[in-house]
Write a sequence for this structure.
């Protein structure tokens, strides 16, 4: 689907979608439990992949109630799946449920779409090998399809922290139901560390203890998952909010207000600070979970995205519309996502008239004297690239057509309805 966005203003109040990261974890934690009801979940292409995996391991997922998902779990003992598990486009699903597969003696085959089958899984496969399990890449290139099993019952692993934090999340979630637990020793600095904080928070809400150590993380074995009252509530998603807040700061006619914005472990709430530092007029009422932002003259800043990789596309768009230089640093791991997002944003914003330079771990956007103009840009089948380019389209002269825009279904299925609802000129 191609979507065309014309230069236009936005205003109004909108609710942030539920968090993708919390939803994945809550559904899988409910799978590791006897069961649980996950309230206000994100139902999207990616979280459906995690639901499929829980079902494949012997759980059941009931979506008959629109605002909650009732999961009957496999209670720490995953069954051998009848078929291959298709994780589609979801890195989180593939990493988290690969560690689940390692718990059973038999083998599970995991695969995904073209993008997911090109993303790195090697360090996690190696970690499962260190724990005595079997974890192979069928093409012997550290990428899916994967064949995983071997009845891992705990141990110690050494693993790099600078490729994906999802490996650590996977090992901690599975480690709790092993016999002896898992100690994770990081061999490099951990990137995306707030995502492990999210994991620790969800584990704690499900009655599971895991903690940070001097050189990594540890989780004791023999634990049982089960949230208090059998229920779990998913908070709003700050990565998704970043597009709404960016459009308010760039194209707000009147203020744009975003609700469901309560403080949480999400590193991507840093978007509020980024906008503030760029000069946006915004207010975060943390008590009521509401952020209000007005159209503002923005200036370029330097931002490190070591902890917030998913904000890079949004910040690149903000930088293209801001005055001065925006330097996004510590971004190498942003190249391992659904696409290489450093190159994708550099190339697509350039088509819209921005001046952008990339190095291996930086993206520099020269906002001075840039007048963004409409263009046909490639959404790269990557939800965050699509949404960031759509926001840029609001302030570009003329029409911007984003190709493959249906892929917003990965994390923000009604993104274009929300955009239209706020008054943007959007043709589908
Ligand atoms: O654990 C998670 O929910 C996520 C972790 C991050 O990935 P990395 O840890 O691979 O950087 C992030 O980019 C992804 O969108 C979601
Ligand atoms: C990288 C992302 O997700 P995942 O790793 O789960 O594919 C994302 O949502 O930006």
């Amino acid at each position: 689907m191609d979507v065309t966005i014309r230069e236009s203003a936005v205003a109004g109040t909108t609710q942030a979608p539920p968090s993708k990261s919390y939803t994945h974890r809550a559904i899988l934690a409910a799978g590791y439990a006897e069961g649980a009801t996950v309230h206000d979940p994100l139902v999207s292409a990616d979280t459906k992949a995690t639901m499929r995996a829980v079902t494949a391991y012997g759980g059941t997922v009931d979506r008959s109630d629109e605002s909650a998902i009732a999961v009957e779990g496999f209670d720490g003992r995953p069954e051998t799946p009848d078929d291959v598990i298709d994780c589609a486009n979801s890195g989180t699903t593939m990493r988290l449920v690969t560690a689940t597969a390692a718990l059973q003696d038999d083998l599970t085959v995991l695969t995904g779409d073209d993008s997911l089958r090109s993303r790195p899984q090697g360090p996690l496969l190696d970690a499962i090998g260190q724990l005595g399990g079997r974890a192979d890449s069928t093409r012997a290139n550290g990428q899916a399809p994967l064949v995983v099993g071997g009845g891992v019952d705990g141990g110690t692993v050494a693993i790099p922290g600078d490729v994906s934090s999802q490996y650590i999340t996977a090992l901690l979630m599975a480690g709790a139901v092993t016999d002896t637990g898992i100690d994770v020793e990081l061999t490099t600095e951990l990137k995306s560390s707030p995502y492990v904080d999210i994991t620790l928070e969800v584990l704690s809400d499900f009655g599971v203890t895991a903690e940070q150590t001097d050189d990594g993380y540890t989780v004791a074995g023999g634990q049982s998952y089960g949230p208090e009252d059998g229920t779990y509530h998913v908070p709003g998603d700050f990565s998704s909010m970043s597009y709404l807040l960016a459009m308010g700061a760039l194209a707000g006619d009147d203020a744009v207000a975003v609700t469901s914005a309560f403080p949480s472990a999400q590193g991507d709430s840093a978007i509020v600070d980024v906008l503030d530092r760029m000069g946006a007029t915004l207010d975060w009422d943390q008590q009521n979970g509401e952020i209000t932002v007005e159209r503002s003259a923005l200036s370029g800043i330097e931002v490190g995205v070591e902890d917030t990789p998913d904000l890079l596309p949004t910040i690149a768009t903000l930088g293209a519309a801001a005055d001065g230089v925006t330097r996004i640093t510590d971004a190498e791991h942003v190249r391992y996502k659904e696409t290489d997002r450093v190159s994708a944003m550099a190339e697509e914003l350039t088509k819209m008239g921005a001046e952008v330079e990339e190095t291996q771990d930086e993206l520099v956007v020269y906002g001075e004297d840039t007048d963004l103009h409409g263009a046909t840009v490639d959404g790269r089948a990557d939800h965050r690239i699509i949404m960031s380019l759509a926001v840029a389209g609001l302030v570009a002269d003329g029409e911007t057509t984003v190709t493959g825009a249906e892929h917003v279904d990965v994390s923000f299925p009604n993104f274009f309805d929300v955009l239209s609802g706020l008054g943007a000129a959007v043709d589908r």
